[in-house]
């Protein structure tokens, strides 16, 4: 009995151990040493990380320069805040715990959040869920695809403007207002019109409108491997809740995924696509935080995320889109390069890559925290729109250039289509000419290590070519074989047979690792040809 009481007491002490909020100064290695020390990272700014430390974990901090910010912390009270107006006094809203350049960690006073979000500020609620470590990514770099061009050509500026106008006409899309719930219904109806395979209303926070998720299922990967295009549809202003039109912030980004759903509806893709409308963004990323934590818990594999937030205001011509990507944890530069090449190939959009250590103030941040690669596409970094969080964020003022917005959407559609991979690649799978004379077999067909490719040709012309193509039809690896290099079997009263086993490790002709994806193995000899498909994982 005494032993049982002791064990119960220890469980109580451990479960009631206090968490403390600590600032840790970062070096050039950024978050990697903190991950190595098994610290719970919940925030990252330009020069420091914010970590949660239990009573018995301070020993982990000994190698670092750190500062205790708060003890016995409670969730939902801590916000990263970036004021855009020098007249804002954050002391009016809570206690400033630390500052990193113009980013503040604020312990907000009870009842002051909704007052704060009416100001010209960007903010992010600190979650108690620790960051997930991920520091590698790669993307296919071949972009010649006529199907993608067809899809991009369908993007219509009048349709884009109609979305922005309709969303503005709700007068307010403040996340807890009835009109934001009505806007969610409007978005769901559009996903229905555009024949999404599944549509979900995802409720995440009491009294807030739901996230709206439209799913287009892939032919090869119909379930939990998918690409995302997203943006928040809620809005705020200094006259919220009743007035918050949010044309640029963020009816423009909402128009992006709605138009993507429309122009992609008549095409099939290898990978699934999710068009996601987030609510609660202006309150500190409530909706996207809920979605990404659930996605990680379910083991979802997200290929990449294109988040658009404010893409309809031009302060000076020629305007360029800022493509904002994280340098590490997760490493998003390959995704940024992928997007920029897609934009250069299929649109006239000018782009500017912005590599950052921290930019936590839109829904891409929620994906970063869970280790998913994501981009923020924005008209300016930092913001230049004078109508930000103002009732004049309307068409003609805050949203002043529909052509620019349309071109951004074209780039997003191009990148999303390339990532999801149009199902008709122009390479026929499993087609054999003179089938009795040729045999091709790949084992396994799905692997993250290597593939064994076996072929056999009867009556060969002393030469066989084995080519491996990516899904765009680009040749990535070639093997040439003549009779002396292969096994030759001569039958007394039958044909001569050439056969060969090849081990392929997922590399190109220069022995460089190829990215994950679908590839086609094509065997040719004289007039005979056959093709098989394989899937390379990483």
Provide a short characterization of the protein structure:
The chain is built from eleven helices and 25 strands. The protein has 538 residues and is α+β, with helices and mostly antiparallel strands.
Give an overview of the whole structure.
The chain is an alpha+beta fold and 538 residues long. Helix content is 24%, strand content 31%. The strands form 5 sheets. Strands 9-10-12-11-13-16-14-15 form an 8-stranded mixed sheet, sandwiched between helices. It has a 5-stranded mixed sheet with strand order 18-25-24-20-21, with no helix packed on it. The chain has a 4-stranded antiparallel sheet with strand order 2-3-1-4, with no helix packed on it. The chain is globular, with a radius of gyration of 27 Å. Helix 5 crosses helix 7 and helix 9 (333-346) crosses helix 11.
Structural descriptors:
about 550 residues, alpha+beta, 8-stranded mixed beta sheet, globular
Large-scale geometry: globular
Q: DSSP strand (E) fraction?
A: 25-35%
Main sheet record: 8 strands, mixed
Please state how the strands of the largest beta sheet are arranged side by side.
Answer: 9-10-12-11-13-16-14-15
Mean pLDDT: 88
Secondary structure category: alpha+beta
The count of DSSP E runs of length 2 or more, i.e. the number of strands, is 25
Number of distinct helices: 11
Helical content class:
10-25%
Low-confidence segments, ≥5 residues, pLDDT <50?
1-16, 425-436, 483-494
Q: Mind telling me the C-alpha Rg?
A: 27 Å
Distance between the termini: 53 Å
């Amino acid at each position: 009995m005494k032993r049982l009481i002791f064990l119960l007491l220890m469980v109580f002490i451990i479960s009631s151990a206090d968490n403390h909020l600590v600032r840790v100064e970062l070096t050039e290695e950024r978050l990697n040493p903190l991950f190595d020390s098994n610290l719970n990272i919940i925030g990252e700014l330009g020069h420091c990380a914010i970590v949660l430390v239990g009573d018995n974990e301070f020993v982990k901090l000994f190698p670092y320069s750190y500062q205790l910010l708060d003890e016995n912390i409670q969730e939902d009270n801590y916000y990263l805040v970036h004021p855009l107006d020098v007249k804002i006094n954050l002391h009016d809203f809570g206690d400033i715990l630390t500052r990193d350049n113009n980013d503040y960690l604020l312990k907000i006073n009870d009842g002051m959040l909704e007052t704060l979000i009416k100001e010209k500020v960007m903010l992010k609620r600190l979650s108690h869920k620790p960051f997930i470590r991920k520091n590698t990514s790669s993307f296919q770099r071949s972009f010649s695809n006529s199907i993608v061009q067809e899809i991009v050509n369908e993007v219509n500026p009048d349709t884009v403007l109609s979305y922005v106008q309709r969303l503005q006409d709700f007068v307010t899309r403040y996340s807890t207002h009835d009109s934001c719930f009505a806007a969610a219904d409007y978005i769901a109806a559009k996903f229905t019109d555009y024949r999404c395979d599944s549509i979900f209303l995802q409720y995440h926070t009491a009294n807030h409108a739901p996230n709206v998720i439209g799913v287009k299922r892939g032919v090869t990967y119909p379930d939990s491997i998918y690409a995302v295009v997203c943006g928040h549809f809620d809005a705020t202003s200094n006259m919220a809740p009743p007035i918050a039109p949010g044309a640029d912030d963020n009816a423009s980004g909402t128009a992006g995924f709605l138009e993507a759903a429309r122009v992609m509806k008549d095409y099939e893709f290898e990978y699934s696509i999710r068009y996601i409308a987030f609510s609660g963004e202006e309150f500190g990323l409530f909706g996207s935080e809920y979605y990404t934590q659930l996605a990680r818990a379910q083991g979802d594999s997200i290929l990449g995320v294109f988040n658009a937030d404010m893409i309809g205001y031009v302060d000076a011509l020629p305007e360029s889109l800022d493509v904002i990507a994280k340098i590490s944890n997760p490493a998003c530069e390959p995704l940024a390069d992928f997007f920029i090449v897609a934009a250069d190939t299929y649109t006239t959009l000018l782009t500017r890559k912005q590599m950052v250590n921290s930019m936590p103030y839109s829904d891409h941040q929620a994906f970063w925290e869970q280790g998913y690669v994501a981009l923020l596409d924005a008209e300016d970094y930092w913001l230049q729109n004078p109508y930000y969080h103002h009732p004049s964020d309307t068409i003609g003022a805050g949203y002043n250039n529909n052509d620019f917005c349309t071109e951004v959407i074209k780039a997003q559609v191009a990148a999303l289509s390339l990532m999801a991979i149009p199902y008709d690649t122009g390479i026929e799978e499993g087609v054999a000419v003179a089938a009795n004379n040729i045999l091709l077999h790949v084992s396994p067909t799905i692997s993250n290590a290597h593939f064994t490719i076996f072929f056999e040709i009867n009556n060969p012309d002393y030469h066989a070519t084995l080519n491996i193509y990516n899904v765009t039809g680009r040749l990535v690896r070639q093997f040439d074989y003549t009779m002396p290099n292969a096994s030759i079997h001569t039958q007394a009263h039958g044909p001569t047979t050439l056969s060969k086993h090849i081990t392929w490790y997922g590399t190109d002709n220069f022995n460089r690792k190829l990215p994950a994806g679908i590839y086609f193995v094509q065997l040719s000899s004289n007039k005979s040809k056959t093709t098989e498909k394989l899937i390379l994982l990483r």
